């Protein structure tokens, strides 16, 4: 019997395998993660990032400081983070002897990110931050997440937890936790979910009993807590929802606590009765552990109240927009990294011939129209997502620091309206884009020797966490578009109107401009109709097709982004290839997706009730 | 520091974890894999399986023999196959010392399937088979694949390889291989793909040099060869495409060979110079190895010609319909198993409350309209797929054994027309359905403790292998619908017309009947237009939207299946719940999906050329 010998190894090379199990691509170019010229185009030609520097909050900044920061982050992402992505996917954390053992590359990476200022980029100078616009933070995070979403995850969680303490914590709580978190000594988590409650936060049952020493005694179980234990820093602070004894039932009796894994006593860190009860075997984000936690097994788990009693959900929700936008950035980033894998593969991999030619060398598969269909769809989804995320982040900046109260209010309206789309579209369509990346790789895409399958696994979480996409659709239709007498939707229609005018002026295809204008009208009309149903108490008639409504709304919003990019591209200093690619993607989206709007509006209008009336035993 | 102790284990139980890593569901009911009453309904109320018993080829059969066979297969699938699915997913084959070491449960399972008659169910009695209709085989295979697609995979491959030898092999080749394969002593594979050729079979370069001893000497490399080595049976016969020295270039110079791993010499089995060069790390179908093979490293790999020289692709393509339908069955089965996981989870898992109610116990999530939306979409896709696969399988039976030449010809037309849909729809939409199953499971769906993520991984292969779905779309539009002056599409329109008439008579919703009628007209019209473009040499204009055409065509075909089921359900002896569920799914598909047809037809008509004209550097 023959053994696997050197010839076997040759075949492995042909396959693109390597003994190290490092991912392979046939192309020699490396994955840029995110296109630099796309980011520059969005920042300076589409979203006028420089204008933010005129606002009070960002006056210390300039194009130079923005570029310096983004440059350093993108270099770090490509050189240091990306090479650790696949190893972390393949060697997830281990739960042993009550502790979580994370990947050994993480402590150094975390420190590098702290040194780069990634954690506190958006935080005020008063707490050691750089007070960068969210817009810049979004672009920078996109590189980090595309390179290694788990490694960045520890930063994102710490930022979220720290921001809560910064916004709502008493001086004592800040003193106890904040500086250590922002300086990178301790990390943070968000501990919301409980096994029996899931998305239903009103049903959480973790309890908090007041003591005379300023802290509360906490008792309860949490699940799906990301990063609640690791070997990166010595301590972790869990921002936790719990009920103070005697609090009202439901969502109105929930308070927010900071619960460290180790607490300080007499200048030493001692265990705070926070136990890791189990580690969940996730299918993606495998560099960061998802844990089941027990608080107070031994009756001595101390938590410090953050904000007022019973105001925990309110505090949490005030941070929700930012958190949801960051999920959107993750959706974009994961799809972007996979898009570039597919693009580079399609440029390099030779197979078959174009129609009509039977002889000669095989052609790169990008020559096949069906492959270009998949690539252009990916491009439309990926770049459309980043444009939207940039737009929404800019609204966040204007909502915080706009020049006038009117500016701030308008930006806030648009921010709230668009956040559910910014969370769901990159996740939902991004997953579709990730699947196309696998498909373009053919049989190779079905192997773990190539990266697309890993990105596909990573992406799936984004439709689930921070409020499932179904829940977002109800938020959009049931809450956001209907709020303030329809003011948010009117503001959006005006913004889209500006874009259409700008596009017409710039000489964009009038058909595309007209299609978008018509789409706005349709969306406005169906929204009015649904709102009227809601006002007459017909909740099913209003919300029964909230999923279709979200799909329709997002399709419009992305069409707007593409027309806006196409208009800006006419005069921007960008390469001819980017110009033409932008035109093609705008045309693709507006001609193939925008027509779905009338169909989805009909569906929302139709009272199509098949699943609304369906009973459990019909399935 | 606390350790993970008994309380930790309690938390693990709460999570639905178990130390054995066996998958968990909260529901106590077990997964039926495929609904028995759906299968009965399709066989005896929709597709009139009994009528096949009047045909020459199936005269020995009756409802009793059909039911007996399906019953034994479904029992085996649930009791013996399903419990081995997760272990095989978690312990994939190992490549060591030149050999592949497969899961230890496989030899016994393979023998059980042989004993049940699964391998030769459809083969003629003359070669030891039961000569069952393909329709019955499809239903039986659906259970097997839903239970453990990898374990069944060895049967499927052996059947495909054996069938080729049965159809095209000389008596000597049959004598050498066939009985051993059909009796379960040896397995078979299909060895088509080469690293440099992929889907482009005309570019394969494995060579075959004739000898004076009746065999050829083979030299070359193959990749993605499933099941080419294992520990199930002693030997494997690889049905391999290769070029005889001096053969014409391209697809016309390819011949088919049987190349065993071990060959017989003087009554002993000796190595045949077939080497495993590498094992591909697939993301699904993990019970069956995908291998890189080297033939003739030492110049002594012998292959036996099957069929005439240079007719290899012709032989292969004659088996292609059956192979593609079986991919469709796999797509269905994988989606069906996942649908039932989601259904049982949704019935059992309590979370949140229905709108308007804030108090009281949490409700099973099936009470939430958005969950029912996902379940009904899954049902529409899953059951619609099985109806189509049954319909197409019945055409295969009629094409082979129809009473008159006219019957056979007509069935053959419909079989060829619908096969690309039967291959692609269950794979493409089945994947979407699998994703919904993950989504319904929420955070738990993102873990490997639950099954949906594994089914999602398994499903992805079906859009890639046996001709990617993109290639199928070109086959459908470029070849099938345009063949024989449009006769296949006319035949389909007649069939759909019969269904509409039957539905009207049965008292189905006239709106649904009208919508389907209109859709047929639309599809006919755009097909004519595209055909005319093709005839004037406008290949891009005709085929540029073949993907949208396939989508449109499949949407119509599944609408037809649903109306057909709804019509049959009116008079069938089925439960009230199935009746109402059938109505709801038919309504769902026809009211939410059929309207997409006019949109997709517009797109095919529009000359929308964004990706057609796109150049490589625009991405």
Describe this structure as you would to a colleague.
The structure is a homodimer of 619-residue chains. Chain A has 619 residues and is an alpha+beta fold. Chain A has 4 domains: 24-168, Orthogonal Bundle (Butyryl-Coa Dehydrogenase, subunit A, domain 1); 186-310, Butyryl-CoA Dehydrogenase, subunit A, domain 2; 319-352 and 362-467, Up-down Bundle (Butyryl-CoA Dehydrogenase, subunit A, domain 3), CATH 1.20.140; 470-610. Helix content of chain A is 56%, strand content 11%. Chain A contains 21 helices and 12 strands. Chain A starts with 5 loop residues before the first helix and ends in a 6-residue tail after the last helix. At the A-B interface, helix 1, strand 5, strand 10, helix 9 and helix 10 of A face helix 1, strand 5, strand 10, helix 9 and helix 10 of B.
* Assigned CATH class of the largest domain in chain A: Mainly Alpha
Distance from N terminus to C terminus of chain A (CA atoms, Å) equals: 54 Å
- Shape assignment of chain A: globular
CATH architecture of the largest domain in chain A: Orthogonal Bundle
Number of domains of chain A: 4
CATH superfamily label of the largest domain in chain A: Acyl-CoA dehydrogenase/oxidase, N-terminal domain
Our Rg estimate of chain A from Cα atoms comes to 25 Å
Report the β-strand fraction of chain A as a percent range.
5-15%
Q: What summary fits the major beta sheet of chain A? A: 5 strands, mixed, barrel
Oligomer: homodimer
As for the CATH topology of the largest domain in chain A, it is Butyryl-Coa Dehydrogenase, subunit A, domain 1
Poorly predicted tracts of residues of chain A: 1-23
| Major β-sheet strand ordering of chain A | 4-5-12-7-6
